[in-house]
Every structure is written in structure tokens, then in C-alpha cells.
Amino acid sequence: MAIEKISVVHSDMERRGGLKHLGVCLFSDISAVTFDTTSNHTITSITEANVKLFELKQGTGSLTSSGTKEGGTIMFEHTITAFIPNLRDAHLSAIDALTNENLVVFATDFNDVTYVVGLSSKYALTGDIANDQMYCRLSGVEAATGAALGDETGATLTFTAMSGELPYLLTPAVTIDATDGSFSIAP
Q: What is the dihedral of CA 168, 169, 171, 177, to 10 degrees?
């Protein structure tokens, strides 16, 4: 029984929550994905291009996954929320470019675990790299300047995706370069 494989130790209870950065790219910029086939819930290699970095303010980013079963099928809805501070032309242009696009989002938490939302190997209908119906979408934007001197200016982004499984963990190392806004994944 699968539940017997869940082992919880003391160090599991002292994990820090929240997301520290997102890597966002078009679904079409993913040219190869290797899903671990040994019952591990990981992506062991990925070939990507044009992943853009969104650094997050501490305590403003989260990933939640909710599963619902109908009949014999369970589907998961993944929601990523992130606050992007300082509304300026570069930020607004980058956010605007994401609207109506099929996306893949790499969400890295403060424990340096990277979750992949927008790639799914379950229920695939074609021989493509992943199920091309389960990509991620920018589903909400709330931009605000604030009303008082102490209020922050920025935008809260909401990304959502449906898939047949929980988000995959990315095992290759992620390299962040904040000076040029790049997010790259080791081969």
C-alpha cells in the first residue's frame, strides 16, 4: 500500500513556506522533458528556452494544489500566486506579454525545491513532450499603487493549471542571475 511509503521525520516539520522566485516560459519553449518512470514524482531533465525570472518579495508567493475526484478520475488544480513589486514599464510589459499564452511555471520555494506547473505526463493523448492540454495560464492580475504612503506598488499574479497529478519536482539545478533576469536549468 502506498501510504506505507510516507515517512515523516522531525526535520520535515521545520520546513519554511513560501516561494522565492518563479521561472516562466511559453509551453512551446519546452522542447524535451524526461519524467522519472520509477514511481518518483520528478522531472529528471528538461530542455527549455527563454525562461524569464520573477523574483518575489518574501511572504508573497505560494503554490496550492487541490484534487477532486469524479468517477474514477482525479484532477488537480494548481494555483500559484505571486506579488511583483514596483510597477514600472518592464514589469507591466512582461506581465502583459503573458496574457492568453500557454505557460510553464517553475516555482522555487525557500527550501530550494522547484515545482513544475504546466507539464503533465498523465492522460497524454499524443506523443508530445507532455499533455498539451494541461499547460499553465495567467488567470488573474491585480495591479495597485496603494492609497497611502506606506502602501506598496505592485501586481499580484495568479497562475492556474489543471493536471492529472500533483506538481512535479525538478531535480536538475536551477541557476538564477538577478542582474539580467535569467532563470536557467542545468542540463
A: 110
d(CA 80, CA 157): 8
**What is the per-residue pLDDT across 98-135, written as a single tens digit (0 to 9) for each?**
999 999 999 999 888 999 999 888 876 655 565 567 88
The angle at the Cα of 130, spanning 125 to 134, to the nearest 5 degrees, equals 80
Burial class (CB in 10 A: 0-12, 13-18, 19+), 34: middle
pTM (predicted TM-score) = 0.85
* C-alpha dihedral (122, 125, 130, 133), degrees to nearest 10: -90
User: Quick one: DSSP state of residue 39?
Assistant: S
Nearest to 171, CA basis, from 17, 34, 30, 5: 34
Report helix, strand or coil for 7.
coil
Could you identify the residue written with the cell 482525479? 74
Gap between the Cα atoms of 147 and 151, Å rounded: 6
CA distance 60 to 107: 13
